[in-house]
UniProtKB/TrEMBL annotation:
The lineage of its organism: Bacteria, Pseudomonadati, Pseudomonadota, Betaproteobacteria, Burkholderiales. Residues 2-220 form the Glutamine amidotransferase type-2 domain. Residues 285-425, 458-599 form the SIS domain. The keyword Cytoplasm applies. Keywords: Aminotransferase, Cytoplasm, Glutamine amidotransferase, Repeat, Transferase. Pfam families: GATase_6, SIS. Transmembrane segments: none annotated. It is an enzyme of class 2 (transferase). This is Glutamine--fructose-6-phosphate aminotransferase [isomerizing]. The gene is glmS. One of its GO terms (molecular function) is glutamine-fructose-6-phosphate transaminase (isomerizing) activity. GO terms for cellular component: cytosol.
Amino acid sequence: MCGIVGAVAQRDIVGVLTEGLRRLEYRGYDSCGVAVLQHGAPRRVRSIERVANLAEQVEDARLSGTIGVAHTRWATHGAPITDNAHPIFSRDEIALVHNGIIENHEPLRDELKALGYAFESDTDTEVIAHLIHHTREEDASRDLLTAVQRALQRLRGAYAIAVFAKSEPDRVIGARAGSPLVVGMGERGNYLASDAMALSGTAEHFIFLEEGDIAVLSCNGVHIVDRDGATAHREVQAQHANHYATELGPYRHYMQKEIFEQPDVVADATERVRSITPALFGAKAQRAFSEIDSLLLLACGTSYYSALTAKYWFESIAGIPTQVEIASEYRYRESVVNPCAMVVVVSQSGETADTLAALKHAQEIGHHHTLAICNVPHSSMMRLTELHYSTGAGPEIGVASTKAFTTQLVALFVLALTLGKERGRVSTDDEAHALRQLHHLPAALNSVLALEPQIVAWAQALARKDHALFLGRGVHYPIALEGALKLKEISYVHAEAYPAGELKHGPLAIVTNEMPVITIAPNDTLLEKLKSNMQEVRARGGQLYVLADAGTKIESSDGVRVIQLPGHYGPLSPILHVVPLQLLAYHTACVRGTDVDKPRNLAKSVTVE
Ligand code: F6R
């Protein structure tokens, strides 16, 4: 989703801006642009192609300057055409980039048109640029900060912006409300970005702006004011060394790299769990856990499926009633509040607009206890919740979530054990056994990754199909859902997942000898039931692709292809079974030649509703 970079320095900042955009590419975008103040006037270059192409155009245009803003745009208001690409100018005085959606842009647009402003784009962003321009014109001091403060008061919606004015050539202003923005401080300049990763190598220290903050950046320093206009002192954080490189290395795609990183990230995630204790979730966890009687998990997409998987663990291991809800549904429905339910938000980015809004909604209607399980430590969700657990998967660049999912599952499993122990349902022996299983997971994941050549063969067949069904039962049903989501989002093969027992209630009607049916077959208590469901598929000619645990006695035969996994891994089995499904989606997409890391129409961090 949209990405922002801003810079003010004692040197030419064009390279910082384009490199920052390159690092934000993973968020997904359909146009991009850079504007700098050059020879006393704002100049910009915009492109509806990739950032690499923009960088070439920038070079051809000999763009240079010491202050500037840049943007990758994921279209919401207005098609992805050059005129709608940011930076947006107002009367060649103001240059602005924006992430988010302005809900009241229509009345503001009418008002500004009546004041004589000509609109050159279909974007909601142009309203902000003109509003700042107009507010500044009206003010005798013509101070950009005052104009930004006043203009922002009139906006409804979510935004992060970066802006500069022709007549104030020494500063760039950033502001956030609902969309992330970080200030980076370096030796020779100060910077803004949607994500600290965009500034890695450029800035050494970071300030993660709070809701309503406005930051004024000059070469000499950073001044922050809060939503009431008072000077704010925010914590300055050193750049976190991250040993998961953001470079591709020997891999063809980030998704492939991130799938293969899973043994390492899971090793890191389990290594820090030496014993099961509430302290893993923060200082206030002990008390909070003693005050709750149920869980309400809120999430979107892949994170929703990890939450759905964990529901089985919470109820079976901890005996705690658990509800899981899609954040975009929960936030708009009238729900019955149980103040003793802990709200758990699960998110890779910690910035997903729907999950964030669902969390705020839950807090407003009376949920006191909240926990965020996130991969980005300083994200909005981590800062808004009482308790936090950082999944520690490192940067996830591929739009399709993989290692973030498996590490979320580890975190949720640890939460289930913790709540089970607190509620007297997990004995010391159970704890020791579960910890052994957790610590052995990386080795088990490696043995599943070794199945890749067999999965490539399946992918060749699947790539020729238009549809696929995924089946699972029990705790593996959400894994089937995740497998179907992975396949459709990156290979564009239409896929649906069902609990295997549900097949005969409708979907069996679409099973023919053209239909691949990918079946998750763990060696658990539901195995015999699942085998019956597989018979139902075969009887209609359906082509079974079975991921079977050792010991299930499911053999390859006519219309039945089997890949054998290691022996059943108990409650953690979903973490192993999802990996072949990730690889299957990945290789199917490769055979079909899609843009694996940047699938069409999708964005990494969905910061708009
Ligand atoms: C799918 C995928 C998305 C995200 C969803 C939520 O592969 O990545 O479905 O899971 O957009 O994002 P986060 O986890 O950042 O809240």
